[in-house]
Amino acid sequence: MKNAADKCNGKEPYFTQAEAEAVCANLKSIAKRTGQGGRSWRRLHVYACGNHFHIGRSNSHALLKPLPAKKIPTTGELRRKLKRVEAAIDGAQRHRAFLLGQIIERDRQRDYQAALDAIGR
Ligand SMILES: [Zn+2]
Asked: SS3 of 14, please?
């Protein structure tokens, strides 16, 4: 155990994030098991302070942890995505052409029948 002089603003410093995370996880498991402190263990987290880390509950500390940057797809990924969209468009256009062909064939049959009827056959 460190003495009071080793503490930073009365808080235990940890010199690696891994060590602080391990201690934090242990504190959470104790709090969960014993029920001591209600549900405030949910806000326990590790935060950076200078060249070391602390475990704390202050909500303002959470701002120190930056959110992971939104991943922008690579050019290759975007090109493959575009290819899939274009293939889908091509398929829809082929189906449209097929349906137009069927409409034309239907009209041709109807006109042929009308011509036969006109000449009395
Ligand atoms: Zn500190």
From this structure: strand
